[in-house]
Amino acid sequence: MLVLGLMSGTSADGIDAALVRITGAPPRLRARLKGFHSHPYPPQVREAILRIANVAATTTGEISQLNFLLGEFFARAAMAACRKLRVPLRQVSLIGSHGQTVFHQGSPGEFLGHARVASTLQIGEPAVIAERTGIPVIADFRPADMAAGGQGAPLVPFVDFLLYRHGRFGRIALNVGGIANLTVLPAKARPSELFAFDTGPGNMVIDALARHFTGGRESCDRDARWARRGVLLPDLLARLLRDSYFARPAPKSCGREQYGDEYVRTILEWSSRNRARPEDLLHTATVLTAVSIVDAIRRFVLPRASVQQLIVAGGGARNPLLMAQLDAGLRGAAGNGQRIELVPASGLGVPENAKEAFAFAVLAYESFHRRPANLPSATGARHPATLGKLARPFSRKRAG
């Protein structure tokens, strides 16, 4: 099948589309990236997503409207990707759409004084995507895992196993998007031997500070231009690292609920009291991401698995300060004088910015064939689950 994966992450920069040729079934499933396209959101749409995802006051009507509007944008991204890659829509068999996360609480919490509830919400109406493109759409991947007692995240480890399992090397697949998450693949690992979790903030805090200090003109600290002019604020870093999430054992997941606007406000309040410079705040936020990742690897990974390579994907892979901090933090971590080698995901077949969209193409393919595609060892689910829900178009005559 030729499958188009659509993904918009917690940074809400836009919609990534990966066209993937997939054949076979596990353990002989083969997936090859045919092309990639990124479709940005208009500024006012991104602003609305971030406002709602940061738990600002809203209405059910606004969420409903945004759900359908994003369905239109996901459909446009799919069609734009096919035009760019010169592939007629009619040749695409299936779309896998992760949607846009606006809420995720992986661990149960008390709700309405009755039961402990975990929940997640991704919007971007799949029926709209199917109608506009004429292609069946699998979407809403996370709830099935959560219904089985899992965190609903991370789901990408299923694809990390296909891409990165190695007979001699132990590997960590790290994705630094808005949130940073990793998958641990011991050498010769079976699927049940993988484990994975979110380490904490990835680009989310850095991006929010960049938007704040540029009045919204910049959505990120591109190439760490601000952060590299700054210096570390040790007192602030120590305070941020006391966050209880970092010490919590896996499986665990996090999002804007922990590291969104409210978290950034505490940093800005500290900055105001201590007269910190913007570039120093950005430098410290970048180090926070690196140190929390390194700490998670040292604390939770290396006692359980021998690791020789760290494969890095996501927007953070293009941040030179973050990568340098990761490299420095992991020197000697493997023990016996061995070094954990940092490897860009592009060196292993899928570009850093395409990996998550690629993954949801593969997950959709598995769901379409009614095969489970979560890894309970990664999410904490009680059993494997078939992910996603299918939206079928009325007719494919319009596709093309």
Structure in words:
The protein is an alpha/beta fold. It folds into two domains: 2-150 and 354-391, ATPase, nucleotide binding domain (Nucleotidyltransferase, domain 5), CATH 3.30.420; 157-348, ATPase, nucleotide binding domain (Nucleotidyltransferase, domain 5, 2-Layer Sandwich). It is built from 13 helices and twelve strands. The protein has helices spanning 43-53, 60-85, 126-133, 142-147, 157-164, 204-213, 234-240, 256-259, 261-274, 278-301, 320-329, 355-368, 376-379, and strands at residues 2-8, 14-23, 30-40, 94-111, 115-123, 137-139, 171-176, 179-185, 195-201, 309-313, 341-344, 389-391. Strands 1, 2, 3, 4, 5, 6 and 12 form a seven-stranded mixed β-sheet that branches. A five-stranded mixed β-sheet has the order 9-8-7-10-11, with helices on both faces. Helix 11 (320-329) links the parallel strand 10 and strand 11 (341-344). Helix 6 packs antiparallel against helix 10 (278-301), helix 7 (234-240) crosses helix 10 and helix 10 (278-301) runs parallel beside helix 11 (320-329). The chain is globular, with a radius of gyration of 20 Å. The model has no long low-confidence stretch (mean pLDDT 93).
List keywords for this structure.
400 residues, alpha/beta, Nucleotidyltransferase, domain 5, 2 domains, seven-stranded mixed sheet, five-stranded mixed sheet, 12 strands, 36% helix
Short description:
The chain has 13 helices and 12 strands. It is of the alpha/beta class. It folds into 2 domains: 2-150 and 354-391, ATPase, nucleotide binding domain (Nucleotidyltransferase, domain 5); 157-348, 2-Layer Sandwich (Nucleotidyltransferase, domain 5), CATH 3.30.420.
